[in-house]
Each structure stands twice: as structure tokens, then as C-alpha cells.
Amino acid sequence: MRIIAGYLLILLLIPAFIAVVILTYTEAGNAVSFSDTLDEKIDLSETKLSQTSLILANNGEVITEIYRPMNRSYAAGHEIPDFIKDVFIVSEDRNFEKHPGFDLPAIGRALAINIHSDDIEQGASTITQQLARNQYLNHHKSYNRKLSEVLYAYQLEKSFSKAEILEQYLNAIYFHNNAYGIKTAADLYFRKTPAKLTEAEQAFLAAIPNNPSYYDPINHFERTKKRQEQLIDRMAQHGKIKPEAAEKFKKEPITLKVDSRKNSYPDYSSFALHELRELISEQESFDSIDDLTARIEELLRSGVTIHTNLDIGMQKRAVQAVTDHLPDAKVQGAATVINHETGQIVAISGGKGYKTGDFNRATRLFASRDRQSSHCLFMPHTLKGLMQTGILELTQVPFASEDIVRKTTEVPIMAWLHWKGRSLTPTTHLP
């Protein structure tokens, strides 16, 4: 009887076993690996860092820097010296070349310290984790953010080489005073490119990101210098440099040459940005002004370079001439200087004491459709006065002879901005 019951039980279990096998096979087919899940949930396609846009004069000189909102110029890997790469690896992440984006032993040590302190005192973030935090996450201290940081770091390691990660990291980190990335920091504090920095200067800059406000080189130079020497000592301890070289680098004087944000000729720059907006509006269709503004902001964050026909010498003379010939504080004026041979606008004075954001009298007054308005009668007399005093030559303004100068109010002159080789629709009207 027991044998029969056993066989019956086996017969009953066989279908159940088959069902389990089928269900297991089906679920296995539907299962998604951990790696594939991360690929789906974490999008690293948007890896571009915001960069500073530039406006150039006709000689290639930078006249305006525009950052939205960060001041950053991107440096390719080959533009960054190996020495500063080693300094950051030694000081921030000695296992950088070995770990998969996170360092488990370091995380364990930090966790033990944090448990005893009942707070998050140590983070044990690798260079890859710091890049993830700067580029995709935030700086809020929490275990949830820390877990996200690890997952993003893992994805970064899957998607990029170690060299690419280090390059992105050195362009992402903050060097205080609104300087992001090694290239911007080198320019801001030393007026050099990264490749031109000495080893001592490189170590000095590497001292800042650990605590940018505390190691602000402008307000806390001695703190920064002390940390620089500590970093140089670490380089010697880990065999990256010889002890004699370390002593030499530490003794080298550090002289800051802080370069302020460039905004030399706002009268002209504001006009160039207005023309950029007009160009984009013409070339691309937008449903609203907000969409156009968003597109302009996107372009400016991408690090565009705007070439203009600004003649710096003429710009200075035009701005000074308006001030000199209109000494009365209650009287305002403006001037636009055009090369009559090419039709290029080479100088603009938007008004006495013009600053960024002010009403630009040289361009906005003439945007009126009423070209016979009283506003249009002032410009010729201003230019005529400049010419009569010898400040502007006849060949430097769009008038062919003294006879035409005497009749400027009767002769309409159209001006074009020549931007990147293209003549645009008339934007300024000089009667």
C-alpha cells in the first residue's frame, strides 16, 4: 500500500515539477541583469559640461566672457599636464586605476567612522564618484545620495575609460571664485594655460578643490600654500617625484595674477548678442519668445565663440569722443561707426558711461519703425562733430564727402553687421 501511495505521490509531483521548470524558464527569459537595469535607469548621454562663451574683436582678442551660470573653459586630456593628474590621483583616489568606480575598503572605513560619530563625517568618494556628484547629482550629505553616487560611478566606469573620466573630472571640479575646471582656474589665477603652469603652480591649484572656500587663494593664500606643500610631500612619498624635486617645488614663489571677468566693450557686445538672437530666430522656428530665449541660453552654455568686426582702437576713440563732446551730465548721446567700404560696424558707443544692461542708444533707438522720428536726427550731428574735430577720418565713417556730411539729415545710410562672413538684414539706420 505504501508503494502504491509513493507512486501516486510521484505522479502528482511530476506535473508540479514540470510547471515549476516552465515558470522558472519563463521568468529567466524575462529577467533583466543588474547591469541592464542600470543602463535603463541611469542616462549618461548628457555628459557635456557648461562652458564659457566668448565674443572676439576683429583681431581675435577676447572682449567678453559669458558664463551661464559657471565660468568654465574645457581642456582636452592632452592639454592637461600629467603632473597635476598625478597630484589629484595621489591626494583624492590612490586606487583610481584599479577600482570599478567605488572603493569598497574605503567605504567600509568611512562607514565605521560615521557610525561611531552618528553623522556623515567621511565620504570615501573616489574620483569617479566625485565626477558623478558634480555632473549628475548634488552635494547633499545623505546615505541615499551616496548610494546613487556609487551607481552612477559604476555606470561611468562602464561608459568611459579611466583617462576620459579623469579628463571630465578635472574640467568639472570647482576652484572657487566661480572658476570651474583646471583651464579656467589656470587662466583666472595665473593667466596661463594648464600646459604653461609650473609644477609648483599646478600643485597650488590642486590644493583648492578639497575645500574651495577654506583654500580660497585670494583671501587665504597661506592656507592654500600650506596644503600645496603637503600635496607635494605626498607626491614624493608615493614615488611620483624625487625628494630634491619636492623641496624645489615647495620653495618656488607663487605669484597670483588674478584675471577678472572680461567685459571690455559692453556697448558692442550687447549689440553682438542681440544680432545672435536675431540670427537664431531667423534660422530656427520657435513657438514662443521663451523657447527662443531657452535656445539662446543653451547655445551660450555650450561655449560658442562669436566673431565680430569690432575695431578696438576705434571703439575706444568713439566712446571717449561721445564723453568729451557731451560734457553736460543731462545730455546723452551715442555713436555707431561703420566702415563704408565693407559695410561692417566697427565701433558702437551706447551712451555715456554705458554698462551691461543699460539702454543702448546706438542700436535700440534706431530699431523704431518710424525712421523719421526725432531720435534719428541726433546721430549724424554727433558723427559730424567727431569728424570736424579730427577724431574720426572721413574714410572711417559712411560718408563720402564733406558735401554729404553737410546734408546728413537728408541721406539715409543703412548699416549691416558682418557676422561670421554673412551680411544680415539692415539692423541700424543712420539718416
Automatic annotation (TrEMBL):
Coiled coil: none annotated. It is found in: Cell membrane. Residues 60-235 form the Glycosyl transferase family domain. It catalyses: Preferential cleavage: (Ac)2-L-Lys-D-Ala-|-D-Ala. Also transpeptidation of peptidyl-alanyl moieties that are N-acyl substituents of D-alanine; [GlcNAc-(1->4)-Mur2Ac(oyl-L-Ala-gamma-D-Glu-L-Lys-D-Ala-D-Ala)](n)-di-trans,octa-cis-undecaprenyl diphosphate + beta-D-GlcNAc-(1->4)-Mur2Ac(oyl-L-Ala-gamma-D-Glu-L-Lys-D-Ala-D-Ala)-di-trans,octa-cis-undecaprenyl diphosphate = [GlcNAc-(1->4)-Mur2Ac(oyl-L-Ala-gamma-D-Glu-L-Lys-D-Ala-D-Ala)](n+1)-di-trans,octa-cis-undecaprenyl diphosphate + di-trans,octa-cis-undecaprenyl diphosphate + H(+). One of its GO terms (molecular function) is peptidoglycan glycosyltransferase activity. The keyword Ribonucleoprotein does not apply. Keywords: Carboxypeptidase, Cell membrane, Cell shape, Cell wall biogenesis/degradation, Glycosyltransferase, Hydrolase, Membrane, Multifunctional enzyme, Peptidoglycan synthesis, Protease, Transferase. In the C-terminal section; belongs to the transpeptidase family. This is Multimodular transpeptidase-transglycosylase. It comes from Mesobacillus boroniphilus JCM 21738.
